[in-house]
From TrEMBL:
<dbReference type="Pfam" id="PF20431">
    <property type="entry name" value="E_motif"/>
</dbReference>
<feature type="repeat" description="PPR">
    <location>
        <begin position="508"/>
        <end position="542"/>
    </location>
</feature>
<keyword id="KW-0677">Repeat</keyword>
<feature type="repeat" description="PPR">
    <location>
        <begin position="473"/>
        <end position="507"/>
    </location>
</feature>
<feature type="repeat" description="PPR">
    <location>
        <begin position="169"/>
        <end position="203"/>
    </location>
</feature>
<dbReference type="InterPro" id="IPR046848">
    <property type="entry name" value="E_motif"/>
</dbReference>
<dbReference type="Pfam" id="PF01535">
    <property type="entry name" value="PPR"/>
</dbReference>
<dbReference type="GO" id="GO:0003723">
    <property type="term" value="F:RNA binding"/>
</dbReference>
<protein>
    <submittedName>
        <fullName>PPR domain-containing protein/PPR_2 domain-containing protein</fullName>
    </submittedName>
</protein>
<dbReference type="Pfam" id="PF13041">
    <property type="entry name" value="PPR_2"/>
</dbReference>
<dbReference type="GO" id="GO:0009451">
    <property type="term" value="P:RNA modification"/>
</dbReference>
<dbReference type="InterPro" id="IPR011990">
    <property type="entry name" value="TPR-like_helical_dom_sf"/>
</dbReference>
<feature type="repeat" description="PPR">
    <location>
        <begin position="36"/>
        <end position="70"/>
    </location>
</feature>
<dbReference type="InterPro" id="IPR046960">
    <property type="entry name" value="PPR_At4g14850-like_plant"/>
</dbReference>
<dbReference type="GO" id="GO:0099402">
    <property type="term" value="P:plant organ development"/>
</dbReference>
<dbReference type="InterPro" id="IPR002885">
    <property type="entry name" value="PPR_rpt"/>
</dbReference>
<feature type="repeat" description="PPR">
    <location>
        <begin position="270"/>
        <end position="304"/>
    </location>
</feature>
Amino acid sequence: MPSLIQKCTSINSLKKARQLHSLLITTTTTAFYAQSPFLYNNLLSMYARCGSLGDAKLVFDKMPHRNLVSFNALIAAYSRAPCYASFAFKLNTQMGKESMRPNGLTFTSLLQASCLLEDRVMGSLIHTLVVKFGFGDDVPVQTSLLGMYSNCLDLESAKKVFAYIGDKDVVAWNSMIFGYLKNDKIEEDQFLFDSMVKSGVNPTHFTYSVVLNACSTLGDYSFGQLIHARFIVSNILADLPLQNALLDMYCNCGDTQTAFRIFSKMQNPDLVSWNSMITGYMENGEGEMAMDLFVQLQALSLHHPDEYTFTAIVSATNAFLASDYGKPLHAQVVKAGFESSVFIGTTLVSMYFQNGDSESAKKVFNLISEKDAVLWTKMIMGHSAMTDGEGAIELFCKMCQEGHKSDSFPISGALSACANLAVLNQGKMIHSLAVKMGHDVAITVRGSLIDMYAKNGNLRAAQSIFSNVSNPDLKCWNSMLGGYSHHGMAEEALNVFEEIQKHSLYPDQVTFLSILTACSHSGLVEKGKFLWNHMKENGILPQFKHYSCMVSLLSRAGLLDEAEKVIVESAYSENQVELWRTLLSSCVAQRNLSIGFTAAEQILKFDSGDSATYILLSNLYAASERWDGVAEMRRRIRGLSLEKDPGLSWIENKKNIHVFSSGDQSHPNVDEAQAELHRLKENMIRSVIDEFDSRIYFT
């Protein structure tokens, strides 16, 4: 019977184990069964191996005579199960009440339970009992102490235990090496591996796996190559887990070519191998290679893509149009039955937002029933990035209402939405929430707070937050710079720009856009030209907004020839129409027919029926008193069916957001609003503000 019991070794054997137990009860005499701790202990261990700790506890409770083996068997079973690990300590207390003295196996299991629960306090108490009962020199107990302290992130105590061990075996070395990796002490981890080899202890497969993981995390290509060489010398390169660790190391170090050479020589790569290689291509920006390998996986391999495969390949195709790869991959995800996976769903949401398709992102989001905080954060950040501030704030509120804990990232996204919408009250409420949750000290939140207060006109609050940041990053500096620029405070903006450089930070595209905008608003032409050249000299490629800002700066200053030259040199041919329109508007103000005609001609090449251009041309003719041209433009405009999208504006007042549409008379306070606008207009006329710009040549 004991030999049959020993054969029940897994959850798949549970039914057979219960049948054996029933057979034992029916075929064995009551006296023998009751008086046999050996039989009870075998049954207890059998249920523990089969994963049925409830049955194991029932057997334990019915034992008429329990011994140390009985307690150790159940404690060991509890220590391996996360949901039952805490019961191991209660059982140890019961053992003491029954006057049983623990041994090394008891302490090994109790320390394993502490390790599993990451309970350093309980682990330290067990350590005192180890010393009290004289098991401080027991090697398995010492190794368990190493594992417990390392897993509880108490590396100093682990090092003391390791130093105390006299004859260190490979298990002790492995525990300490893993401890360094667990505590992100990667360089020390590699040093310890060297010491292990020099002491004459041969590394195991587990050792190599941990050290390769360290090389992968640190990006230490040279050390990883040395480990690879040891594989070849030791003739262990055929081990599949080690091959996968090598793939991961080379990919993380950016050498996908060597990784693929290893992959192509693998006789039977498993799905982990395929996923590692696809992920490696994805992380190194080689989307096409990742897609090719994904196609091979489906065509040549017996393995089917899992969640990790789809997550990696969808991420790899983010750089391409969703219609090219993303949507077909999404269809495969649905076909494979993963459409409700939050893991893949988060990646799909990110892909759709990167392609500007918020509707598809919403559909994916709504199909996932078990949403986690990461998915909510992606949605909030996505809406905020697409300037859908109302959507971002609404999602943030729903996330909080459903009980998800917000970290710094969704808070930062919601604050950015408040900044773009210029809604100060909502921003203040989210600021209060950040303080309450302790996230206001996060650098990402502080940067967003500075941006929110600055864009809402509260520069004093923005400056106060900024001054309390001990080591502001570039985002914080850019937020402060952007605030001054947004409000036309060029001198303050230039001072911030100088401070950025003094703090050895490198200005990026956002920095230069803000400072160029400040120069444009304040008419600082020479300074703007210098910064424009300085940006290009520092290897920062101007984007469309930079060109638009520079054209506006030069045009306002009357330097129309130079503005035209900037447009011609721009690389954004599809958006040049906007640049030409900016130049044409300035030509009206400067009454420059020659360049104005050139700008209009370029615009009409893109859209021959552009009504705004004909209106600007009419104004240009009127400014130059060319009334025949005005008449011609009016004639052409009549031939067009002009339909202009109504202008929209909104304002926050007393916690309510009021939206106004051009020509809309439905707002309940429209009469008051129009009266106020009339009053402002009268004041502007009396103040003679920008007399020429207020003249309207065509309505």
